[in-house]
Amino acid sequence: MTWDPQQPGAGRPPEGQGAPPPQPYPTAPPPLPNAQASYGGGYYAPGQAPPQGYYGGPAGPYGAPLVYGQYAAPRPTSATVLAIIGLVLGGIAILNHGLGLLLIASDSAFATEPGWPRVDSTISMIVWLVGVIGCIGLLRLNAGSRRMMLGWAGVYILWLIVCGAVAVTHTIPEVIAQSGANRPPGFEQGAYGGAVCALVFFAAYPIVVLSMLSRPHVVAAYDGVGRL
């Protein structure tokens, strides 16, 4: 006789009858497809293996996730300020030296002798063109822009030293000689002092570039992934 729990006074079921024994928990779900296996759907062509994603599965359309403890470092504020200042200074320098070369090429009466000024304007304009490209790279967070600007700053400082040496040994003595005996008192000291002040003024920006772009958080932002 089969035990029926709906019958009045059914009581406890006899041995071997009643509710079925509890079933074991279902097995774990099958693992996600291997990232190295062929994948025939979504954003990838049939047979193309998608990049590695979470838990060994294929990644989404935005690429593989960052490793735990890592983050994509944002552009540092100091690099942004340096890039904007560099673009302004570069634009002024390129306009100034480009106009000077144009006056020299047109034999204008406003142009000075076409010797050293031509060399100075040509090299300075090339240097600042490279600097403008590096500043744009800083704003775009390009990986090589930081090293490019460090190299640019070193080259520009060396070029300023050359220009200062030429001014002290050639340009200023010629200006003093052309002024004649009627030059005002302190004219020579003012000429040499002005050259030194101009050298310090123009060297300030590349020196700050060397200092700010060598800081650890700037290096992490441009040369790798920052660590939490």
Q: How is the secondary structure organized here?
A:
Elements: E1 70-71, H1 77-105, H2 116-139, H3 145-179, H4 187-212, H5 216-223, E2 226-227
Antiparallel strand pairs: 1-2
Descriptive terms for the model:
rod-shaped; 2% strand; mainly alpha; two-stranded antiparallel ribbon; single chain; 228 residues; 5 helices; 54% helix
Describe the structure in your own words.
With 228 residues, this protein is mostly helical. It has a domain at 77-227. Helix content is 54%, strand content 2%. It is built from 5 helices and 2 strands, in the order E-H-H-H-H-H-E. A two-stranded antiparallel ribbon has the order 1-2. Helix 1 packs across helix 4 (187-212) and helix 2 (116-139) runs antiparallel to helix 3 (145-179).
End-to-end distance? 71 Å
The overall pLDDT average reads 76
Order of adjacent strands in the largest pleated sheet = 1-2
The chain-level structural class is mainly alpha
Q: Low-confidence parts, pLDDT < 50 over ≥5 residues?
A: 35-41
For the secondary structure, the number of strands is: 2
As a whole number of angstroms, the C-alpha radius of gyration is 37 Å
Number of helices: 5
Overall shape? rod-shaped
Strand content: under 5%
Helicity level, as a percent range? 40-55%
Biggest sheet layout: 2 strands, antiparallel
